[in-house]
Design brief:
With about 775 residues, the protein is of the alpha+beta class. It is built from 27 helices and 22 strands. The chain has 5 domains: about 220 residues, no CATH class; about 90 residues, Calcium-transporting ATPase, cytoplasmic transduction domain A (Distorted Sandwich), CATH 2.70.150.10; about 130 residues, 3-Layer(aba) Sandwich (Rossmann fold); about 110 residues, Calcium-transporting ATPase, cytoplasmic domain N, CATH 3.40.1110.10; about 140 residues, Four Helix Bundle (Hemerythrin (Met), subunit A), CATH 1.20.120. α8 runs antiparallel to α10 and α9 packs antiparallel against α21. The protein is elongated.
């Protein structure tokens, strides 16, 4: 049988040969008795059936004792009484059927538990136990506990990354991170990028610089949580025990009453036969473990069945902002250039100088330049002043990147950029070239692409209140809350404030708290269910959490909630349904309508039905995100990358509209021409490819062409505005210059195009691109 050892750090699922042996004996006895009866030897048949019945009594008694030791009601006692009763009233066929039913039920339970626990066991079996450490030219295999921070390790093809670290060398690593993230697609990590333990090397060997010990690494934490999964009996399982507490005396009472009224002990035995409570013992545990397994398959590690059951009853979700609803790191949202300069060149120069800086904003600049494919130059004579920025020489030019004295005293374009940064709640990084202000980069920590969809799915699953608690300032917090449609936002919260807020919400409803940092750990512990963003979060938050999202996607929370609700519903449905069927059969047996042998067959059918119904919790839920074809996922990744590459086009549209505020001279006309070239050569081909390649592929998964109609309408508007811009240029060419009467409409056209593009990009990223891993 699949067994769950009750202890805080163990999850053991094993198949016991005893059940298989009992099934073989009872089956052989039943078949041999049937053949003897057909051969005209009823005495031999009865002897075979009696032998099968007797063989089932000792293990059944052992299960009763084991249940009583675990504090359960010991409802297997009904099966023992039924077995003994059939022997006493000489209903040997019924006894053999009960024995077979009991053996089959236990064997099915073992199979169901093994199948349902497959992913949890896979986590444990996958755990690395050694590492190959390189010292000079020597590579030696050492125990994982001996690996120290700074060690250089070698990870061969097919091997598991033993500890968290960074890739060394000149070649990228190809990794299978499905155990960590639930996503089957392989990923490529370039040199210098951090990788987590537990990933599998799907390419050639690479070197890894250890940044954590075994116990500090990601996979060790996941394994620890997996070992605790199932260590406690879930509330819904205890509910089944409570059902059993009254089901046992009720069964005995009905059997006794049937015997008393009818004077037939056979009727009492028949009642006990159909009252064998396998539905109660099997339904809830199988459904809950199936839910745990289903969640683990998607990259959600649930500490125990109790956490899964509580998650299924949740009505309030409280979320941290930074790192939970947002990516947790700043991202370039706009690059502004001084007149005569291009945004791409501003970003390239700023990122070149910041390559050697450890500052988080510097890393954001370098990442954005890499995403846009900008070639960076190696800086010279770099000096960095904390709080002010960096200075150095790039391509023979003296640069400075960081803060600027006062934009108020700067040119008009700089004042406009400074004003935009205030309105957008963005951080500003200024670039000066040879002492002259050349441009600025606006950075912000935007909402995750999958966050809007996740919030909608939480609402659809039955969550009634969505709150955000953050230590950030009020303005950026309110903007994120407005974009995501949250009910309440509380900014500038200390850890103590978060705990108080979570406790207040718990008084109203079952509350889930989601966070990723050390400061979130107290609030996670205070909630009914704490959920940690474990992909990049702290070990403190994971330690305090009941649920850990091992993939860096907040929409996995919606997946976990949906699985929890469904598993709990199936568990209760299976237990109550099985009991109801047994009660109906008991009534029929009490009135003499169901003899012991047919009753045993009926109870066997009930058991199988209940187990199969409980296993439905393993199947994917139809309300989740649609399944995408691999080719469609590839298209999504391609167009998402193109979105990143087209950010400079959006910047150029906005900058040109701003430039027209100064008039309509030759410089303005040239800027409009440059924007038109960007639109015709880069943007419009991208939109056309989306319309004819991506949208038809998505329609197949989203339910038809109507799912993409709104986005197609945006494509039409973008093309219309681009054509309007071309018409303005044709009029200017005919007149030899931009005319004053064109100015208002031309600016409106550019600003309108910028707004439509930003909204359209955001909608595609939230609705379509977030579907792919």
């Amino acid at each position: 049988m699949a067994s769950r050892k009750h202890g805080r750090h163990s999850l053991v699922v094993t198949g016991h040969g005893g059940e298989v042996a009992l099934l073989a004996v009872t089956t052989a006895a039943l078949v041999a008795g049937g053949l003897a009866r057909l051969a005209g030897a009823p005495a031999v048949a009865d002897a075979c059936w009696a032998l099968g019945t007797v063989a089932a009594v000792p293990p059944a008694l052992a299960w009763v004792v084991a249940a009583l030791r675990r504090g359960r009601a010991g409802v297997d006692l009904i099966a023992v009484l039924a077995l003994i009763g059939t022997l006493l009233v000489h209903e040997y066929l019924a006894g053999a059927l009960i024995a077979l039913m009991l053996a089959t039920g236990r064997t099915l339970e073992a199979a169901a538990q093994r199948r349902a626990s497959h992913e949890l066991r896979a986590l444990l079996e996958h755990a690395p136990r050694s590492a190959r450490r390189r010292t000079g030219q020597q590579v030696r295999t050492v125990a994982l506990a001996e690996v120290a921070v700074g060690d250089l390790l070698v990870v061969g093809p097919g091997e598991v990354v033993p500890v968290d670290g960074r890739i060394e060398g000149a070649s990228p690593a190809v990794l299978d991170e499905s155990v960590l993230t639930g996503e089957s697609q392989q990923v490529e990590r370039p040199p210098g990028e951090r990788v987590r333990s537990g990933a599998v090397n799907a390419g050639t060997a690479f070197e890894l610089r250890a940044e954590a010990t075994e116990q500090q690494s990601t996979y060790a934490e996941i394994v620890r949580l997996a070992r605790e999964a199932g260590a406690q009996s879930a509330p819904v399982v205890r509910l089944a025990d409570r059902y059993a507490a009254w089901f046992l005396p009720l069964s005995l009472a009905v059997a006794g009453l049937a015997w008393l009224v009818s004077g037939s002990a056979v009727r009492a035995v028949a009642v006990l036969v159909v009252a064998t409570p396998c539905p109660l013992l099997l339904a809830a545990p199988v459904a809950i473990v199936s839910g745990l397994s289903r969640a683990a398959r998607l990259g959600v590690v649930v500490r125990d069945g109790g956490a899964l059951e509580n998650l299924g009853r949740a009505r309030t979700v409280v979320l941290d902002k930074t790192g939970t609803l947002t990516a947790g790191r700043p991202r370039v949202i706009e690059v502004a250039a001084a007149p005569g300069r291009r945004p791409g060149e501003v970003l390239r120069l700023a990122a070149s100088l910041d390559q050697l800086s450890p500052h988080v904003l510097a890393r954001a600049l370098v990442d954005e330049a890499a995403a846009r494919g900008l070639p960076l130059s190696m800086p010279e004579d770099v000096a960095e002043q904390p709080g002010r920025g960096a200075t150095g020489n790039v391509d023979g030019q003296q640069l400075s990147v960081g803060r600027f004295g006062s934009a108020e005293a700067g040119p008009a374009w700089a004042r406009a950029v400074d004003n935009r940064a205030v309105l957008d709640g963005a951080a500003l990084v200024w670039l000066t070239v040879d002492g002259v202000l050349a441009g600025a980069v606006l950075l912000r920590d935007p909402p995750r692409r999958d966050a809007p969809r996740a919030m909608r799915r939480l609402r659809a699953a039955g969550i009634q209140r969505l709150l955000m608690l953050t230590g950030d300032r009020v303005e950026p917090a309110q903007e994120v809350a407005a974009v995501l449609g949250l009910d309440t936002v509380r900014a500038q919260q200390t850890p103590a404030d978060k705990v108080a807020a979570v406790r207040a919400e718990r008084e109203r409803a079952v509350t889930v708290m989601v966070g990723d940092g050390v400061n979130d750990a107290p609030a996670l512990a205070a909630a009914d269910v704490g959920v940690a963003m474990g992909a990049h979060g702290s070990s403190a938050s994971s330690e305090a959490a009941d649920v850990v999202l091992t993939t860096d996607r907040v929409d996995r929370l919606a997946d976990a909630l949906t699985i929890a609700i469904r598993s709990r519903r199936i568990a209760v449905q299976s237990a109550l349904g099985g009991m109801a069927l047994s009660l109906i059969a008991m009534a029929a047996a009490a009135f003499g309508l169901l003899p012991p042998a047919p009753g045993a067959l009926l109870q066997e059918a009930i058991d199988v039905t209940v187990i199969l119904n409980a296993l439905r919790a393993l199947r994917p839920d139809r309300t989740g995100p649609p399944d995408l074809e691999p080719a469609t996922e590839d298209l999504i990744h391609r167009f998402a990358a193109e979105h990143d590459d087209l950010r400079d086009v959006l910047d150029a549209v906005r900058d040109t509209a701003d430039l027209l505020a100064d008039g309509i001279g030759p410089q303005a006309l040239e800027a409009v021409r440059a924007v038109h070239r960007l639109l015709t050569e880069r943007l419009l081909p991208h939109e056309d490819a989306e319309e004819h390649e991506l949208y038809p592929a998505l329609a197949a998964s989203l339910g038809g062409p109507e799912a993409t109609t709104t986005m197609s309408r945006a494509h039409t508007e973008i093309a219309r505005l681009a054509h309007r811009l071309a018409t303005h240029l044709a009029l200017a060419d005919a007149a030899g210059e931009l005319r004053p009467e064109q100015l208002d409409d031309l600016r409106a056209c550019l600003y309108g195009l910028h707004t439509v593009l930003r909204l359209h990009f955001a909608q595609e990223e939230e609705s379509y691109f977030s579907l792919a891993p």
